[in-house]
Design a protein that fits this description.
It is built from 15 helices and 2 strands. It starts with a helix and ends in a 5-residue tail after the last helix. It is mainly α and 321 residues long. The protein is elongated, with a radius of gyration of 34 Å. The longest helix has 45 residues, at 272-316. It has a two-stranded antiparallel ribbon.
Length: 321
């Protein structure tokens, strides 16, 4: 039985698509009701704990990621200018085996820390916040589930700034000190009290270091604001140079006009809209250029006529006595 259970776990954790589905379920909560809320938070909680323990026991854990491959290969071939790389036979085979032909499997080493950060988004946190608002109706296990998640966010992942939002802090205060606070005799009260106390301490220190947090507490956090609040400066991004467009080489002894005709014919098959756009732009530029030239010619004529008029007036002027 132990071997069967381990085999089932290995199959579940091996597929990266399973990981992505669990995250998508947690992120996708949109007021579907408490039962859905309870189910999706329990799923993510159990999945994270099991995966964390399993990855520690299996240091060389490999996961299989699936990515669309055929379209990427076709795009690469077109960028190289090899328009014949995918002929009719390739198109027919793609239709025959869409499920397998469009996907490429690749194994890579699993990193739990990197994976768990996918749960630290604002949408996932909002789902657990919505769940925790029912704290007076939750049992001990449900309260522990919410507590473990917020503890992971604030301390294990060191992303406490994600919880520094007015409504979240107010909810934490109500759980401990509010008029409808948790029962002090509850086994979960001490854990929540410690969590909230340490979180408020971090909030106080962060406000002293980053006064801008007082404004950011009114809003949800995006990655750029999280980075700034953590380090005090904006994250520097290096923009990569755009890839040069694919070149089309026309083989054979052809004149320049004939080569342009071949290029236009190739574009006409798949890029007719782009050709029409270029035609419109060139026509507009040509009309504007002709208008400028006409205005320049008129100004030159007016200037010449003005100079002739002033010269004639000078010649006809009576000599002074």
């Amino acid at each position: 039985d132990q071997e069967i259970a381990e085999n089932i776990q290995n199959r579940i954790f091996y597929e990266e698509t399973t990981h992505d589905r669990v995250i998508a379920v947690l992120r996708g909560y949109k007021d579907q009701g408490f039962d859905y809320l309870d189910a999706c938070t329990e799923l993510s909680h159990i999945f994270l704990r099991m995966l964390e323990r399993y990855s520690k026991e299996n240091i060389d854990l490999q996961v299989r990621s699936r990515r669309r491959a055929r379209k990427q290969k076709k795009k690469a071939a077109l960028e190289r200018g090899d328009a014949d790389a995918y002929d009719d036979d390739d198109a027919s085979s793609e239709k025959e085996d869409v499920a397998e032909a469009q996907r490429e499997s690749k194994e890579r080493k699993f990193d739990f820390t990197r994976f768990s950060t996918k749960f630290m988004t604002q949408s996932c946190i909002n789902t657990f916040v919505a769940f925790t608002k029912y704290y007076n109706d939750l049992d001990i296990e449900q309260l522990k589930r919410a507590h473990r998640f917020f503890h992971r966010v604030a301390f294990k992942q060191d992303l406490s700034v994600m919880l520094f939002r007015v409504d979240i802090v107010a909810m934490f205060y109500k759980i401990i000190q509010g008029p409808e606070a948790l029962d002090h005799a509850s086994p979960a009260f001490r854990e929540w009290e410690d969590l909230v106390r340490h979180l408020i301490r971090k909030l106080t220190r962060k406000l002293q270091d980053r006064p801008q947090l007082a404004i950011e507490m009114l809003f949800s956090k995006i990655p750029s604001s999280v980075f700034y609040l953590e380090f005090g400066y904006e994250k520097q991004t290096i923009s990569s140079k755009p890839r040069p467009p694919a070149t089309l080489e026309v083989k054979g002894a052809m004149s320049k006009d004939e080569q342009i005709g071949v290029a236009v014919a190739v574009l006409h098959e798949e890029k007719l809209d782009a050709i029409n756009w270029i035609i419109n732009i060139l026509s507009s530029a040509l009309n504007e250029r002709q208008s400028w030239e006409g205005e320049a010619a008129v100004r030159q004529i007016d200037q010449a006529q003005g100079q002739d008029s002033s010269q004639s007036a000078t010649e006809l002027k009576a000599p002074s006595i």
